[in-house]
Amino acid sequence: MKTVRARLVVILVSVAALLALPAPTQAVTDPAKTPTAVGTGGAAATVEGLATEAAIEALRGGANAIDAAVVAAAVLGVTEPFSCGIGGGGFMVIHTAEGTTTTVDGRETAPAAMHPQSFWEDGAPLPFDDARYSGMSAGVPGTVAMWDRALRQYGTMSLGETLQPGIAVARNGFLIDQTFHDQTAGNVDYFDDVPSSAALYLDPDGTPRDVGTVLRNPDLAATYDRIARLGAKGFYRGAVADAIVEAVTDPPVSADANHTWRPGVMTQRDLLRYTALEREPAHVTYRDVDVFGMGPPSSGGSTVGEALNILEGYDLAGVTRAEALHRYLEASRFSFADRNAYIADPAYFDVPLTGLLSDTFAAERRDQIGDTAATSPVPPGDPYPHNGGGTGAGMAATTTGHETTTHLTVSDRDGNVVSYTFTIESTGGNGIVVPGWGFLLNNELTDFNFSSTTHPNRVEGGKRPRSSMSPTIVTRDGEPLLALGSPGGATIITTVLQILVERLDLGASLPDAIAAPRASQRNTTATNAEPAFIQSPEGQELASAYGHVFSSTSEIGAATGIEFLTDGGVVAAAEPQRRGGGTAMVEQPVP
Ligand code: GLU
């Protein structure tokens, strides 16, 4: 086995020399970054120019928003491989031209053989990185099944057609930018344990490839091509499935690896049985709009929704900015206490969603919010009396905040809208590129509360880990008004909530709401906040007059969104700065 591996290393390393070429010999260019676009017809906003362009091209060629979202996602799987791709999963909220709103759950599942102590050793849970960089952290990927399901149900193109732009980018290459370089740098110490990961993402000397290098991924092109020919079963059965199982159960690390890579227990049967699920959206009304989000196993829709229900009791537009932001932070604090206690895969835990999203429970929580900051952790409330009976499981839980994942927002001229967040969990997933197939596996199973054997979100075979992803669509009188989402682990929820408050209550335009300095309160003593937030007049006032304690963090979120104007126009907006900024385009720009 070791000899085979050693030979594989040599082959991969020599192929690697062909994968990465200096920019000047190539005709590969990066589209200019345009964070805001205004016009008519369809629109797209993603973190990356090639993906946004591909979506707009598809729309101009007659694709609908669901088709174009998959087109863009497949390109992002090539150009943003540390944040998303076919080795991971995600959630899509869809508003159709006919006026219905639905969601598709492509969350990864735990292999059937997993159990509450799968991440334990010698009677104790593993440290996070030991759990993460392993075969055990990889959930059964859901992305290909979700693309297939969304397209069959709501698209007009075949899976194979939507993959073509991604295949072209994987074959022709793209330019490595500073963000890509930095994301590689954060993984070097683990990628260099895994020859297939090192061959694709590191130079032969073991350092990240230089900014400006053209990176090609012919293996991923071949994987997409196989899926294009065979459909989703090209991924879930046969050679790709076998390679995934092999990589999980016997991590393909080199003999001189300086970390221990623990094996996982995924089988071909786990892959064969994977199903993307269509689910009802989590829904609340907020003032004069309807807000649709992702329900369990994501905590996105329920937590954004509960916080909005709490905030609906305040006249945020009629108070000072500091006071409005105090209410935002406290609504988030109390909603996170409930999120941490009650959200898990609904197939394994009876989530009291009706109670959590009820106005009466929100009123109870609002009564506990004072004129100054509460001391966290605040205990969870009891949503069960608001849920039609049952008993609670109240307990504290962990919260995380990584800067990974990606969100894209796409609409078409007919009124279909897609808000789609997808991920491989940590930046670089579990660090293992499936040998020969060109994509990283996820480490989504560390989103379970893996140090607890009793928490509703504990590890169990077949279960989907709780997520924070919050793809959101807002309608007014049944017509789309806003679509948005963000990466950022548990800060996704507060980012989406803060953008909604800025846009709906505090008078900001969508681009300004996306750009605004952020603070994220997740039932912790200190509120994470960006330096610009802490230093702003309202940030100072929140500290001095409202008792908020801030801990500085350089960046929170990297949102994208679309606003639909009453005159038929659209504003597509991507993050202008964070993570290098994104790109927004519309089908017919305003001249
Ligand atoms: N795994 C995270 C979640 O589902 C998303 C990844 C991230 O942004 O940290 O909530």
Approximate shape: globular
Task: Look at the helices and sheets and give the structural class.
Answer: alpha+beta
Arithmetic mean pLDDT: 93
Describe the main β-sheet briefly.
13 strands, antiparallel
* Helix proportion: 25-40%
Gap between N and C termini: 62 Å
Number of helices in the DSSP assignment: 21
Total strand segments = 21
Distinct ligands, ions and cofactors found in the model: glutamic acid
- What quaternary form is this? single chain
Which segments are poorly predicted (pLDDT under 50) over 5 or more consecutive residues?
1-18, 22-26, 390-401
Give the amount of beta strand, in percent.
Answer: 15-25%
Rg from alpha-carbon coordinates: 23 Å
Overall description:
With 591 residues, this protein is α+β, with helices and mostly antiparallel strands. 35% of the residues lie in helices and 16% in strands. Strands 2, 3, 4, 9, 10, 11, 12, 13, 14, 15, 19, 20 and 21 form a 13-stranded antiparallel beta sheet that branches. It has a 3-stranded antiparallel beta sheet with strand order 1-8-7. Helix 2 packs antiparallel against helix 3 and helix 14 runs parallel beside helix 18. The longest helix has 22 residues. It is globular and about 60 Å long. It starts with a helix and ends with a strand. The N terminus is likely disordered. The site of glutamic acid (GLU) has 14 residues, from loops.
State the gist of this model.
This protein has 21 helices and 21 strands. With 591 residues, the chain is α+β, with helices and mostly antiparallel strands.
